[in-house]
């Protein structure tokens, strides 16, 4: 996969608070090492997706990263779908996370998922310091919609959202 970081130029949007329901795991942020664990999580989530009630759009899924540990590289990850109401009956092991209203820098990453770690590294280590922007919280999320053609497809597009102050 060729280096896509030079194409990562953000747009800025405001998004209201919303909720996602999905499956959660702990992962370690190392180049390509968490791909298998996250792939298994996504596989389990996609099998459970039809059982989640009150989905806003089952063709739009989210990958939420939060609770980063800078020393170990560990973080929590949820593969999920936006829901209208969390006061519903959910399958076992499904968690609901509330994403706060915020202003976001939105980056469109194009490529297979093996390069998404490098995209995040560029955003946090190069773009943010040079932009003068400050992250508002310890989380980020990706949106996977009809432009996402699969984790190994180099024509896949994923939107990366970084909350800003």
From TrEMBL:
SUPFAM superfamilies: Probable bacterial effector-binding domain (SSF55136)
Originating species: Chengkuizengella axinellae
Name the record gives this protein: GyrI-like domain-containing protein
AraC effector-binding domain span: 8-165
Gene3D superfamilies for the chain: Regulatory factor, effector binding domain
């Amino acid at each position: 996969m060729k280096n896509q970081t030079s194409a990562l130029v953000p747009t800025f949007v405001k998004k209201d608070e919303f909720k996602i329901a999905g499956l959660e795991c702990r992962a370690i942020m190392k180049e390509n090492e968490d791909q298998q664990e996250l792939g298994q999580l996504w596989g389990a989530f996609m099998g459970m997706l039809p059982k989640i009630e009150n989905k806003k759009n089952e063709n739009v899924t989210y990958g939420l990263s939060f609770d980063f540990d800078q020393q170990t590289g560990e973080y929590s990850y949820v593969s999920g779908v936006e829901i209208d109401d969390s006061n519903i009956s959910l399958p076992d092991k499904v968690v609901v996370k509330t994403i706060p209203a915020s202003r976001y820098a939105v980056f469109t990453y194009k490529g297979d998922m093996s390069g998404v770690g490098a995209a995040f590294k560029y955003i946090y280590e190069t773009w943010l310091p040079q932009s003068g922007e400050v992250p508002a919280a310890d989380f980020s999320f990706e949106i996977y919609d009809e432009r996402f053609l699969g984790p190994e497809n180099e024509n896949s597009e994923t939107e990366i959202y970084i909350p800003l102050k």
